[in-house]
Specification:
Helix 3 runs antiparallel to helix 5. With 206 residues, the protein is mainly alpha-helical. It contains nine helices and no strands. The chain has one domain.
């Protein structure tokens, strides 16, 4: 009798149904939320460490930084001058706050708080504003210290056209970097506003 019931269960598709239920289905929005949280955490931690270092480490104790091969001395001189500039320090305070918002938003997304999406939007908008302000501040600072910019280009061996000053080349490079970051934040904001992510965070898809 047990064998007969088992046979009818197989014929009726009971085992296949049970097998399908036993395998957890992918929850819509879960992977996107995880990637978004990870990206916000990495950017936030990096920004926090960088800002904290500039604000707390004396310029004389900063280790040489080489953004471009051969420019360690010029880059260190540039960072030292930035660390001694009150406006640039103010920008780093903004960086510290904006990066902190990213870390908070990442944690809220991880635990799926109802307010996580709101925090994520505020954090991403804040970082867009900081990125633009930092780009403007960096170019403004370079304008006041042209000798540091010239030294960086000289040590790097980069050829700059005679009719294009090094400040313009520096401004173009800074603008390109800022544009990349703004584009990244725009993509992250779009992901945060996706219906499946909002549904997952609000536990509607649980």
């Amino acid at each position: 009798m047990l064998c007969a019931k088992f046979g009818r269960l197989r014929q009726g598709g009971g085992l296949s149904t049970f097998g399908a239920v036993s395998k957890p289905a992918a929850i819509p929005g879960a992977r996107a939320t995880l990637l978004l949280s990870l990206a916000m955490s990495l950017i936030g931690v990096g920004g926090t460490i960088g800002a904290y270092g500039i604000l707390t480490i004396p310029p004389s104790e900063m280790e040489p930084v080489e953004l471009v091969p051969g420019t360690a001395e010029a880059t260190s001189a540039m960072f030292t001058a930035m660390a001694e500039s009150p406006p640039m320090k103010a920008l780093q305070v903004g960086n510290l706050l904006a990066s902190g918002l990213l870390i908070i938003s990442s944690l809220l997304l991880t635990v799926r708080r109802e307010t996580a999406i709101w925090w994520a939007k505020q954090a991403l908008v804040a970082n867009v504003l900081y990125t633009l302000a930092n780009a403007i501040g960096t170019v403004w600072f370079a304008h006041g210290h042209p000798e540091l910019v010239d030294a960086m280009f000289t040590q790097s061996g980069q050829a700059v056209p005679e009719d294009a000053p090094t400040l313009l080349a520096h401004a173009i490079g800074t603008s390109c970097g800022a544009s990349i970051m703004v584009g990244l934040y725009a993509v992250m904001l779009r992901i945060a506003l996706r219906p499946d992510v909002r549904s997952f965070v609000s536990r509607e898809a649980s």
